[in-house]
Specification:
Protein name (chains A, B): Nitroreductase A
Structural class of chain A: alpha+beta
Distance between the termini of chain A: 46 Å
GO molecular function (chains A, B): oxidoreductase activity
Shape of chain A: globular
Radius of gyration of chain A: 20 Å
Family (chains A, B): Belongs to the flavin oxidoreductase frp family.
Largest interface: A-B, 118 and 117 residues
CATH class of the largest domain in chain A: Alpha Beta
Strand content of chain A: 5-15%
Keywords (chains A, B): Flavoprotein, FMN, NADP, Oxidoreductase
Oligomer: homodimer
Largest sheet of chain A: 4 strands, antiparallel
Number of domains of chain A: 2
Order of helices and strands of chain A: HHEHHEHHHEHEHEHHH
Organism (chains A, B): Neobacillus mesonae
């Protein structure tokens, strides 16, 4: 196993960081690595906003559901889907680009571009001994997040990435069985096999919690997911995204 | 610079592969690395389909706009947004999960999950001396791609990842200036600065092509993007995604 694969497999979300800021050099390395990711047709449809200001970080932490590690970390990055610069380019080149920019296809491209870049940044950070945590909680209140970060139209903050020196290491949770995530030639057609895989996984997860909580917790993954998904959260998203002139047609 | 950062910065898309399949071990490593990526609320909303069958790969290559490296590579992965298993879980747990699964928010989660996983897989492959190329062209004809891969409802094939032993190394294209992608504290508010950055980049890209084509080509990035975006491609996507019961509300 090489150093790269070791770094990748060793990932866990870190939620406690030392009070030590990243250096300008570390930030530059993380961003450069993010930029090295593949991008659909060279479109580069994302932006990254780094937040250092303590008051601003506290506000973002509150908006993200009082996750204190949004405020306390070495650096806080926000990854955004960004088709604003392409809007300006359309004006400058006097070409009709708006219908394309408003398509669901280009919304998907911007999301994928931003996520590929973010994961490169995350791996780079981890390779330097830093810990990371993705913050989807920013999507709880995007109107407010947008106001804080002053993002223009056709820019959607997607998630944060808290980076810093870990002060408490968490455990890795077992993932879905490889054969459930990975299919060969075609998607699994046998529903019995498919459901069996989920059931086996449920037992693994239940056992995982049981062991780590002295039996206090033993919820299955299916149970967790059903609970999570039965709560209708962030249902404003469609309207919000469309108000920002993306995913419209 | 450590080995991880070196691997990340050394990325380039590879479009010519040796006729040598990946081993089962290599495939397993790539998928395990993909699975090690962060996932929103542990939801694991993606699947990966590996394609080895030569006929199937040829069909996918034709659908992706006759990109021959979709057919000729060491292994072809298709990364899918996947909320199908969560649909089944809702039924089994007898919880009302459908409104959430049909939300734009969860569509975004599935896309981001799939892309984070894919980039881990890509980096892992590159660290083993393999080359990779993302294939967005699969989205040209998703109805046909879905039929070939037999994906159920709420599964959207997003992109392919061709992996293999490189037989021809391509050059890296310069990315947007770091200060244009990366903002601090807030998005760049000075449009003059912002447009200047784009103009500088245009010159860099124009020069890049000029040098590599003995002056035959010298298009600016803005020009490329305006041309690309003025063509309304994949405009069926919104309807297609909604027909697959995602991004509906």
């Amino acid at each position: 196993m090489n150093e790269v694969i070791e770094t990748i497999l060793n990932h866990r979300s870190i939620r406690h960081f030392e009070d030590k800021p990243l250096t300008a050099e570390q930030i530059k390395t993380i961003v450069s690595c993010a930029q090295a990711a593949a991008t659909s047709s060279f479109i580069q449809a994302y932006s990254i906003i780094g937040v250092k200001d303590k008051e601003k970080k506290k506000k973002l932490a509150a908006l993200a559901g009082n996750q204190e590690y949004v405020a306390n970390n070495g650096h806080f990055f926000v990854f955004c889907a960004d088709l604003y610069r392409h809007t300006l380019i359309g004006e400058q080149e006097q070409m009709e680009v708006i219908p394309t920019l408003e398509s669901t296809e280009k919304f998907m491209v911007a999301l994928i571009d931003a996520a590929l870049a973010a994961q490169n940044g995350a791996i780079a950070a981890e390779s330097m001994g830093l810990g990371i945590c993705y913050i989807g909680g920013l999507r709880n209140h995007l109107e407010e997040v947008k106001a804080i970060l002053k993002t223009p139209e056709r820019v959607i903050p997607l998630f944060g990435l808290a980076v810093g020196y870990p002060s408490k290491i968490t455990e890795k949770k077992p993932r879905l069985p490889l054969e459930h995530i990975y299919h060969e030639e075609e998607y699994e057609q046998n529903q019995e096999v498919y459901l069996d895989q989920l059931q086996n996984y449920d037992e693994i997860i239940s056992h995982y919690y049981y062991e780590r909580t002295n039996g206090k917790r033993q919820d299955r993954w299916s149970e967790q997911m059903a609970n999570l998904l039965s709560k209708q959260t962030r249902m404003y998203m469609k309207e919000f995204v469309q108000k920002n002139k993306l995913n419209l047609r």
